[in-house]
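Continued from yesterday's entry.
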Amino acid sequence: MAKCAICEKGVYFGNSVSHSHRRSNKMWKSNVKSVRVKTENGNKRMYVCTSCLRSGKVERA
């Protein structure tokens, strides 16, 4: 999976616990999009999570 280029948010792992308390592996994937971003030396395509896009940490090209 891809990581956010701004906040380094990626995949998280843990346990999914059922009603009978049996545990199985679970993976949470962050909402990462490939977007074109304005940088100092032109436009660049990078992976950015949607929370960074909404908060205005990144300016789209």
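--- second protein ---
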Amino acid sequence: MDLSLIWFLLIGFMFVMYFVLDGFDFGVGMSLPVLGRSETDRRRIINAIGPVWDLNETWLIVAGASLFAAFPEWYATMFSGFFLALLVLLLGLIVRAVSFEFRHQRDSARWRAGWDLCIVVGSAIPALLWGVAFASLAQGLPMEPHQGGALMTGGLLSLLSPYALLGGITTLGLFLAHGAVFLALKTDGDLKQRAHALAGRALLGTGVVAVVFLAWTVAQNPTPLVVVLSALAAVALVGAWLMNGVGRDGRAFALTAATVAFAVLALFGSLLTRAGGPFVMPASNPTADFVGLTVANASSSPYTLEVMTWAALICLPLVLAYQAWTYWVFRRRVTVAAVEAAAH
């Protein structure tokens, strides 16, 4: 296996980690107006992700940096073609981060309500746009060759195909369900019961959308890998709904995480196994001389990839170990007593 393919798989792993971990952050943020019936409830909801949300975003930074170094043509084409969508997405992430820090800076209900709204919006926008972006990549985009690389020619509207929009709705619903299950795992009492109920409704509603999206993904590229990964995502989603229904919070959370992981892997698998690939950005308007950006023609030099591989062998285990340690330290449930004690 050559290094360019190894780095395609590593970047896929980094994005899977990002969507699984930051996905429940987005879901928790979106659940705030539904589950946060009192200020104590809202503080418990936010405190559930308070120690880890910024650590989860580390995977986005690592994935973006790896993409830039390992596949500069992919990075340049995607970031130029997706510029407006990514700008809105990043603004959402910034607004959400600022809201977490600012909402408790003034003892005013109106002040906190404004920042809570920012948390909801800053969580929903990335949850939607990430799905749109990756579904667009898997489906293919209008491109033309440009200075040894590629240039997207369709503009922002080319991202808003029915398949891409369905992908965005799927990630929006999956992340909401993932976050609600996480809250059921991290809280107790009445808030826990309401989180269970929200997770059940979100999993049921998302299940219909997700099955249609995964079936469409398989129809576009019915290779064994895509079929298996899509089927695993669907099975994990059903399992999560069943486990949530019987109150097995840990298993339900593991299964929603598996659902997100398998769904993202199905999209990367579609790129990997598409005829003429493996691709990083297939063209929806291929010609005899240009079919899009492949793993081979978009990658950096072998020497660059070799240096990056040695760095990854050292750094990735450290990142994984530190993140596992952080989750272990902050594993306890967020109770009413703990929040009230912290207020005093």
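The chain is about 75% helix and 5% strand. Residues 189-220 form the longest helix (32 residues). Will compare against the first tomorrow.
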